[in-house]
Give the backbone structure.
Amino acid sequence: MADLNVRIHNLLLKNPVMTASGTFGYGPEFEDFIDIGALGGIVVKGTTLEPRQGNSYPRMAETPAGMLNAVGLQNKGVDYFINSIYPLIQHYNTNIIVNVSGSLVEDYIKVCEKLSALKNIPAIELNISCPNVKEGGMAFGTSCAAAATVTKAVRNVWPKTLIVKLSPNVTNIAEIAKSVEDEGADAVSLINTLLGMAINIDTRKPLLSTVTGGLSGPAIKPVALRMVWQVAKAVKIPVVGMGGISNAKDAIEFLLAGASAIQVGTANFIDPAITISIIKGIEEYLDKNHFSSVYDIIGKLEC
Amino acid sequence: MKKSITDFTVLSNTRLSSTQFLLELSSDILLNDVLPGQFVNVKVEDSPQTFLRRPFSIHSVDAKRNVLFLLIKEMGIGSTKLASLQKGSNLNLILPLGNSFSFGNVKKAILIGGGCGVAPLLFLAKKLHEKDIHCDILLGGRSSDDIVEVEEYQKYGTTHITTEDGSLGEKGLVTKHSIFNSNKGWDMVYSCGPEPMMKSVAMYAKQNEIECEVSLENTMACGIGSCLCCVTDTIDGNICVCTEGPVFNIKRLKWQI
Ligand SMILES: Cc1cc2nc3c(=O)[nH]c(=O)nc-3n(C[C@H](O)[C@H](O)[C@H](O)COP(=O)(O)O)c2cc1C
Ligand code: FES
């Protein structure tokens, strides 16, 4: 049986499959369907300094092979996470990664400082790419200078593994990746959702309350794969790939393109047990092709 | 009851009106603990245009035969695809989802359904009947074509009908039915249907100081509380219809009534 272990900086994953932020709740939502401990890691919902109510309804629209969302980082804030959620999930036999979101550099810093006291949070994923909040988020992820500033500030207060999550809504994602690498990011993850929209022609109104929203699901997979490949070539730190991954074949494509681990997002909605089949499928692929470790395929695309 | 992802077999698919059909489904899992008001999230196979699952209220459960019924109205691509399901085909469900209607101290209830919103009310009427709670059932629709399974409802309560065009029962809107002319001593109003209808039902309940529970619909992606796409505005802020609902006491909603 092939070795599925991968390493993202100091983070050891028993397999390269994690869940994407905002699509897996905090974990308990999935306990009826899977053994959370079988996953390489889980990335919990975007967490901000203050509680956020998110955007108004409607927040979701189905699109061909995908969906648009405009949740807008609804969460009860970092203190609620620490006091009420962390105690329920800290025993999970997997890596719990907190997706840290914000609109001001000081907010990111404060959230990270608070989280650093939690023993069982070995890494954060810095979300500088949420397209659904007006005042920030993506603003940090769409210019090299801003991405560098927030990464540097967080690096100073967060000694454990720091993953920076990149926005695809940019002209050159590899440049942004390099600028966060230069400021001390231990890994990058990509992609967050692609900005999109949908219209109801009968009412002549947008389908989302916010007009535009984030596109996810199989529809974005080719774009995500291309970006992961470009970024993996540009940086030395590990890359975590995501965007439309719905089965083991998709996951293997991302690994071949250079991702050291992958995240599954929207596919969890259609099959809450999909992550387990993906892990099994990767293992079968490795065994069938006589690879002894998942590292035998990471970045091994032949062009 | 633990949630599961389960394959069901279609035992029958019966057309009830020009737009509504009834699916009878069976599987290995025990349905004894499914509650009225809960829903299932259905995977629509072989339909490239539908990507997400489709939520449907549980119309009824026959605990003895361990079968589940879904009453579906053809509205979009997903439901139209389901309308063509043949006996013996497979249907993948995530269930049971959501909370349920409450009937703790209820002595006499009225169930008010409009259009396809009546779906969860049959199961509720059945449960109330089992608990010897008397109920009036008021079914409303645009025309007689919308009113289905009247005999089923009659088994569990006194059934009344209204249609907007008068083709069956009284003519007019549900909330104008003559049943409301006198005080029937209800201590609970349950309602499910189009939002404007539920709002006028809620207004009646509020004015008459009767408890009222409504079952809401919303766009859903996951159905299990993980995406936060299905929120509704309540006195406790934005909360998920799929986990804290679909049934809400109107006191918790921020409806302008
Ligand atoms: C409903 C929803 C909520 C999301 N919330 C967050 C979030 O809070 N933070 C974040 O970094 N990404 C969030 N994302 C983006 C996903 O983590 C992921 O990057 C994106 O959906 C692409 O992967 P997928 O196609 O597998 O879903 C969200 C996506 C969806 C669909
Ligand atoms: S549909 Fe995903 S949280 Fe309700």
